[in-house]
Amino acid sequence: MTPPTMNMNFTTFSNTINGESRLSPITTSSLNPSTESPLWPVPVATPKDVEEAIHSANAAFPSWSSTPFAERLQKLEQWKQLYEPYIEAFTTLLMQECGKPRAVAAGEAHEVLALFDHNLQLRMPEERLEDEARVVVTRHVPVGVVAAICPWNFPLVLSVGKILPALLTGCCIIVKPSPFTPYSALKMVELAQKVFPPGVVQAIGGDEAVGPALVQHPDVQKIAFTGSSATGKRIMAEAAKTLKRVTLELGGNDPAIIYPDVDIATTAPEVVQGCFVFSGQVCVATKRVYVHESIYEPFLEAMVEATSQMTVGKADDPSTTMGPMQNHMQYTKVQELVADSHAQGYIFALPPQSIEGKGYFLSPCIVDNPPPTSRIVMEEQFGPIVPVLKWSDEKEVIACANGTTSGLGASVWSADVARAERVGRLMQAGSVFVNSWAKTTPRAMLSGHKQSGIGGEWGSTGFLEYCNTQVVHLFK
């Protein structure tokens, strides 16, 4: 079936409630981080908007959850076809709201297609056991109404990555985008209205009151959240009051362990990419680099050389390879870590460079072998600063790598792949990369250990987190 055509305006933005665009007497706008100039106004959802969205989702749920699975797949395919002609428009939008250089923004816009393709291949599992007395059927039924509370660093991928499995399993979903980057998610949900019945997928942006209202509401059955561990803990505490299901993808402090047998010339630039892609504002970015003492100096020098080749600038400048920080809040946090490292007398192998003019620009910098218990090592930076540390004993470096409360990602680098895999299996992390920085794929689950999350997303089983398990006992 050919999806309906539409022309989208990428300069006006609204919330979507019960299939209709919804404005508000109160608006806000986020800033272009490359210029600090205001972007377009977006409506701030009122308490009444939140109530109506939840009511509409619950009203739509009986019909949508009973829609045949094949028909739900067909709807997802139609939505994908509607999206494809707008990839360039979404790329430009991501450049403006996130400050992502074109290549990074285009990567996110195209990753949405990979999410569609992956989810379109999924099928609901069912187990059937039989003995002389009974047949036992284990099946998965949709949990109900889901609220997706989405972050600012990948506003399109991380919202679509929640919407697709929710719709596939028969849930209805309300998307709450970050007020720092509301635009792409609002527009993507607007696009979905041409395909899905009213109330099935909605979006309500606004201020800091919207998220708590969704979490506390008794008629929301699940929260899917990506963001900081601190916020995740608050969500989990509130969700416990109504025993909501939660999926929490939280912060990381991902270590990289570098063995002395690596090829320095090829490995160091790859490690640098893992540290500084999207200015380090990635949950699974490399945030601590442990280099064997026998190659520490040349490896550090190679990292400095590769990092020095990065061009920091505005997102729309074709020469830019690293854009600004996305928002002033995160910009300030990273500046504090830089200042603390200076105050403690740590050595900068690559010191920060001053950047004049508007925009939340920080040059990438590398701290040379700070104490293993320093703030720059133990805290998640989420920005373009990384500590590099020496190691000599394998057991000790594994303990250091695992020695934080985070457990999202890790990487191990060695010419001896068997050794790297063995050590990788000892990492207390949900995703381990051998001889690569964190290159995630929708085909593999993304989950966190320890305080980096509860549950997981993507992969062949992540969509089942939008379901309750039901066992039917059929007695003969």
| Number of alpha- plus pi-helical segments | 14
The biggest beta sheet reads:
7 strands, mixed
Question: For the record, what is the CATH homologous superfamily label of the largest domain?
Answer: Aldehyde Dehydrogenase, Chain A, domain 1
| Class computed from helices, strands and strand pairing | alpha/beta
Oligomer: single chain
Low-confidence stretches: none
The neighbouring-strand order within the major sheet is: 16-17-18-15-14-19-20
* Average pLDDT reading: 97
Q: Please give the CATH class of the largest domain.
A: Alpha Beta
Q: Fraction of residues in helices?
A: 25-40%
How many strands? Answer: 24
What is the radius of gyration? Answer: 23 Å
CATH topology-level fold name of the largest domain = Aldehyde Dehydrogenase, Chain A, domain 1
Morphology call: globular
What's the CATH architecture name of the largest domain? Answer: 3-Layer(aba) Sandwich
Strand-residue proportion: 15-25%
Overall tally of domains: 2
The first-to-last residue Cα distance is 43 Å
Provide a descriptive summary of the structure in words.
It catalyses: an aldehyde + NAD(+) + H2O = a carboxylate + NADH + 2 H(+). InterPro entries: Ald_DH/histidinol_DH (IPR016161), Ald_DH_C (IPR016163), Ald_DH_CS_CYS (IPR016160), Ald_DH_CS_GLU (IPR029510), Ald_DH_N (IPR016162), Aldehyde_DH_dom (IPR015590), LUC3-like (IPR044086). Keywords: Oxidoreductase. This is aldehyde dehydrogenase (NAD(+)). Belongs to the aldehyde dehydrogenase family. The protein has 476 residues and is an alpha/beta fold. It folds into 2 domains: 261 residues, Aldehyde Dehydrogenase, Chain A, domain 1 (3-Layer(aba) Sandwich), CATH 3.40.605.10; 188 residues, 3-Layer(aba) Sandwich (Aldehyde Dehydrogenase, Chain A, domain 2). The chain is built from 14 helices and 24 strands. The strands form 7 sheets. It has a 7-stranded mixed β-sheet with strand order 16-17-18-15-14-19-20, with helices on both faces. The chain has a 6-stranded mixed β-sheet with strand order 11-10-9-12-13-22, with helices on both faces. It has a 3-stranded antiparallel β-sheet with strand order 7-8-24, with no helix packed on it. α2 packs antiparallel against α5 and α9 packs across α10. It is globular. The relative contact order is 0.14.
